[in-house]
User: What shape does this take?
Amino acid sequence: MLKIGRILLPIDFLSASKHVVHQAAALARHFHSEIVMLHVVTPLSYSAAMINGNYVPANLADLREELIRQAQRQLDQALGPELDGLAVKRVLLEGDPALTIVETARVEKADLIAMPTHGYGAFRRFLLGSVTAKVLHDSDCPVWTGAHLEEEPAREFSFRSILCAVDLSPHSFKTVQWAAQMAAEFGSQLTLAHITADMEVYGPGPYQSDPSWTEALINSANRQLANLQQEVGTKAEVFIGSGDVPKMLSHAAKQSNSDVLIIGRPAGGRLRATGYGIIRESFIPVLSV
Assistant: This one.
């Protein structure tokens, strides 16, 4: 049985994603989780305040104290309607955002971190390569990231359909197990997706146009997925494609009308380059386990 007792929700007031907050709240209500709302004050916050002219300090120490006071007021007032009725713990810390998020998740014994893939504004496309990427790399617990879009769809979020990416690595059992338990919790339709290598990536050769090689790859993937489902104890639809993994998974998500994409992270929390590409390409939230 899947248990999510505590969700860490990092908040950046300048680029807070209400969509991710809404999704975290939906999870918290279902699992009766406590939400730990975290805001990290950084040295860059001091510079930004001085440049924007929001506050004229007598010295750097006064500026630091005022920023912390402002952040605490915002944290106390933040996102009340979205989190109404939930157990919420508010935490304000100073330091490097990614390191602080990861350390707070450990200290608070969080079962899940929920955060946007990027901020909004001039640097929105770079955050996945910085804060979120570092959290995905270093976190010991699963990480929920919002859709990598400037504006997410306005539709009500649900768990009607779940897509699980399976690379058939040793970590796949845990990935499918998470997906199966999540689908069972919400009564969702579950689809397992495996993307085989595109024969064209090997360049010209005698096997490039031989359909038997593609057929052999598909048959092998089908057998391995069937065995994996038997081990996990689930029965899901299967999607097998060939080509660019992020793009094909995005296609599979549209075809299955999925609300959430679940992908694996090997031991130690590290996410391979393909994983980052999947998150960047995804128009739906991604749960990295």
